[in-house]
Design a protein that fits this description.
Blueprint (H helix, E strand, L loop, with lengths): L1 H23 L1 E6 L16 E6 L18
Antiparallel strand pairs: 1-2
Length: 71
């Protein structure tokens, strides 16, 4: 039973850290379907992964051609 307690204890430490990291700094999301074609998922048959940089968005000056995600 000791491995189970270690597993639960590790999850209780790792899960809040992961949630805080993805809410504040970076998150990986998928893009599928036709909504972002032809920039992402050009042929419509596969799924693209994107890294969302949430930290820089607060101070970044957006320029034409950049992709912005509202969550």
């Amino acid at each position: 039973m000791s491995w189970f307690r270690k597993f639960i204890k590790g999850g209780l430490i790792a899960l809040p850290s992961y949630v805080a990291f993805t809410d504040i700094f970076y998150a990986v999301r998928t893009v599928d379907g036709q909504s972002m074609q032809p920039t992402l998922n050009p042929d419509g048959n596969n799924t693209d992964f994107v890294l969302l940089d949430r930290w820089a968005a607060a101070t970044h000056k957006f320029e034409r051609g950049e992709i912005v995600s509202l969550m």
